[in-house]
Amino acid sequence: MALSPHVPELGALELLLAVARLGSVGRAAAELGVSQPAASARIKGMERQIGVALLERSPRGSRPTEAGRLVVEWARQVVEAAQALDAGIDALRGRRDARLRVVASLTVAEYLMPGWLLALNEASPGTAVTLRTANSHDVAAQVLAGEADLGFVEGTSTPAGLSGAVVAADRLVVVVSPEHRWARRRAPVTGAELAATPLVLREVGSGTREVLEEALAPYGGPAAPRLELASSTALKAAAMTGAGPVCLSELAVKEELATRRLVAVPLDGLELQRPLRAVWPAGQRPAGPARQLARTDPGGPARRGRPEGLSGNPS
């Protein structure tokens, strides 16, 4: 049932209680941090709204009328109930902020999340974070099922049913062992050559595989894989043993490239950049520590990009 238009707003009731307690509109205004003319205008507006005089004014101050004493008593109950509601909301927010369930793709979890969680701990030291890893398809499924508060995925688009914000960018590289024939060739590998070569790939559902398949779609898609493996570590090991070319995140092979245990293959005309996204259920907004983490940037400062699928920023 809608409230009558004669019911004053909470701020006006708090002002009335302060006047009744202090005996002066001026002292009540000072306590609440407003000017005396503004407080007087608000009391008069409340009297017009209710339809009765609430205060008797005299050179010695202001005191409630007979009707005003009734309104003061009712107002006290309303304000006390609002204070209890405020305290309850604070408790709920504190409980929410004390725990954060995160699920992230393997690349994000292994190479970016440690730094992000360190920054989150500095900003919200009371938050206990549970981190699980999965491929991007399973990350989306867990967030949609309510099993995680926030997810991080790789891939070319935001998964269906989720909203998201790009929090970082990543580049995929094709790498081989130093003994592979591609490690010594001078000409870049073309898209057609890469598509025709059996590769060692991540499993179906991986964001890495999705990006590669989209890039090779103009060439008929990748050939049947030589192997399918479920982690960057396994892919790197396969490449180093000569199992075949591997496509994976540049973040994952930085050390191996620097020590020449793997060699990056130059590519001709293929764009293998991909965004990394924080995702959450569509129609909701991350709050508290989840909002902080959803705006994390690998360089440290929070990213200020516009979330996808929302009408505004998460702040």
What does this structure look like?
With 315 residues, this protein is an alpha/beta fold. The protein contains twelve helices and 13 strands. The strands form four sheets. Strands 3, 4, 5, 6, 10, 11 and 13 form a seven-stranded mixed beta sheet that branches. A two-stranded antiparallel sheet has the order 1-2. Strands 7-12 form a two-stranded parallel ribbon. It is rod-shaped and about 100 Å long.
Residue share in helix: 40-55%
Strand content: 15-25%
Number of helical elements: 12
Distance between the termini: 33 Å
Largest sheet: 7 strands, mixed
In short:
The protein is an alpha/beta fold. The protein has helices at 10-22, 25-32, 36-50, 66-97, 106-111, 113-123, 136-144, 191-196, 207-216, 232-240, 254-258, 289-294; strands at 55-58, 61-64, 99-104, 128-133, 150-154, 162-176, 189-190, 200-202, 227-229, 246-249, 263-264, 267-268, 273-281. It is rod-shaped, with a radius of gyration of 31 Å.
